[in-house]
Amino acid sequence: MTATMLADRSLLRLSGDDVRGFLQGLISADMAGPLPVWAGLLTPQGKALYDFIVWPDGDALLLDCEASAAEGLKRRLSIYRLRRAITIEADARTVHWSRAPGHGMPDPRLAALGYRWLAPASEPATGWLAHRLSLGITEGVAELGQDKTLWLECNARELNGVSFTKGCYVGQENTARMHHRSKVNRRLVVAPRAEPGDRTRATYPELGLMIEHRRVEALGDAIIPEWLAAAL
């Protein structure tokens, strides 16, 4: 198993003064529980800025994030750091994936996604994008949109990306209000590729698929996997 590396992912390492407490007040997932977890860093209005998976690394934390967004995520976290003695830096390890069990941890979003682990670089994996989209799961700035999509519209509740018991974090008020009032009127979905429109976020011609932001009463030909059907 050498062709397992997800070449479009990278790692940021947070170390120093109570990094769990630092993230607890910022991101949507509960840092007091077991890791890894999928989480979002949101705007005060509850819209997605960045999504990532948080891994433990001794007293430090590792953010398994989109490689193209790593520098932007680092800058955003640094704004909130203020005078706290926290270091945010790139980590040399890489993210690995396999559909088959035998190595790593189940993806915290959905077990059917497969297994992830952190290790030195190897040959790039193939099949990850097609597998993820076949399960109707979106991620990354291009698909989620930056400051465009409410976190619950990114299916965060169904994919274990939000805690409603942890207390305050950036964007918590609007996210909690939507949850308790069941006001998720739109969803990010994977659908067969068609002519892009104003609802289209990303297209994958080689797979014949696209990501769209659709109203729940007009999901049309979108892929509706079991985990999403149960929520709808």
From TrEMBL:
Keywords for the protein's UniProt record, in alphabetical order: Transit peptide
Coiled-coil ranges (or none): none
Keyword Chloroplast attributed: no
Record bears the keyword Zinc: no
SUPFAM superfamilies: Folate-binding domain
NCBIfam families (alphabetical): ygfZ_signature
Entry-linked PANTHER family: TRANSFERASE CAF17, MITOCHONDRIAL-RELATED
UniProt-recorded name of the protein: Folate-binding protein
Taxonomic classification: Bacteria, Pseudomonadati, Pseudomonadota, Alphaproteobacteria, Sphingomonadales
